[in-house]
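Example 3.2
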Amino acid sequence: MQEPADQSVVLNCLCVSSSASLAGMRLHQGDVAVSLGTSDTVFLWLQEPRPALEGHIFCNPVELQAYMALLCFKNGSLTRERIRNQCAAGSWEDFSDALRETPIGNNRNIGFYFDTMEITPPAVGVHRFDPNDCEVSGWSPEVEVRALVEGQFLSRRLHAERLGYSIIPGTRVLATGGASANKQILQ
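Structure, written as tokens:
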């Protein structure tokens, strides 16, 4: 039986990788970078971090008086692909159309989709809520698509803010990874 990797080795790899990403994406104070891949990763420039049990805080590689944070979300593109297959006949074009056809805010319908045990927060299952905060079993395909995308990004923002991130004038959101090619997801 193979022994699991030493925690310090894993943490060092995370630190080097995320430091290179923050520097390579040329983040500045207030910026956030989102890598939309199999797992979604959020990199943050922080001035005054608030360490928490979820996420990681490191020294900032380009500013000695600042910090950077890394948040990883396991249910990223694979979850988006599942909803695309269920609600948009496996078509990214139809998925994008569903986003265009629904209003921002989704008429206060929101969903949280954890196909596998999530890292941040530790949760599993699909949780859909209507405008009255009542859990519901499902929606039309268009509402489902928007609930997924908005729920994912609201969750990322909530956890970023818990680590000390805040939007400031001039904040930029930089996206990379496979799903960043979809303009409707970026909106």
